[in-house]
Protein: WxL domain-containing protein
Amino acid sequence: MFKTNAIRVASVGIVVAALMGATTTSAFAADPAQPVNSTAPIFLLDAATGDPIAAGTTLAFNKQVVASPTATNDGTVVYPGVADATDVRTFIAPVGSERTPSAWSAIAPGGFYPGTHDVLLPTMTLDSHTNGNLASVKANGGTYSLGFALTNNNALSIASGAVYYTTITVTPVTGAWTFATPVATGPATPPSGSFDQNLAATTVAAQDGTLNLVSSAKTTNVLNAATLVNNLSTSTGTVGNFTVQDGRVVSHPGWTVTSSVTDFTNGTTTIDKKQLGITPKAGATALPAGVTLAVAQAAGSAVNPALLASSGLTAAIASTDLDADLTFVAPADKPAGTYTAKLTITLASK
Structure:
């Protein structure tokens, strides 16, 4: 079945006029080089069995072989056609002249797979190339390209650059020949590279910046309306976001933030400052590494002044946003009313 298909496909075509023989070298190379400019690879298969012919095999001049784009072919894998092709020609050509039909040494008509411009298993048998100077190829031997082309313009031009070939080496007189077998390769390695560059940079001594406290936007802080919690008047609020800026990149001694508050008064009535509880927390942004919040001071037992936060000594922290929750609990024996006090937030270097 395989042999019948191969012969049927190869027999379609028009015989063209004989070409002048090309001068070839008589040197014999046992291991032909695989061409790199073929449109697709050519694997040689035994025309009778369809089996791939092993690399390094020496073939007789009349050995029946066909070409395949793959190492195995069950008669369905074709070379894709091109729309402007009108003919198929197989050829033996001097290396480098594969795309110049007038320079081919010997040729034979090929054919398309019926109803298409594709080519299936074209015949590569050397002694079938009877048009041209086949006798010179056999007598003189040398290195040639063996392949086929899709042509037009009465087989004088290559259609869309579609030329497929491999390299063969022919022994003078006997015509015995060897061929190059394509090597299967993986995806091409993407272009890459590297270079070295010597760098030099002149530095100047670093300098300490300043330590600053950016205050909360609240200059007067009215706590939320009082509610009864455990039957005691309780008001809550927040200090509001404030920011510590530390530009002391050389010394980075660290810093502390403390709070202090005066007693609350309403006319002649006083409520002790210990009744204001304060709970430190992060401000508008997350607390940076290296900053520690102090423990909360509970309303009724708050200590003044009280530590709110501190930074370590390992590095200057450019910006730290802080805040604190406030809770004011009035004793049961104090009359209702509006009580005022002053809260002071203090930043100090360690």
About this structure: DSSP finds two helices and 20 strands in the chain. Confidence is low (pLDDT under 50) at residues 3-31. Residues 2-10 form the longest helix (9 residues).
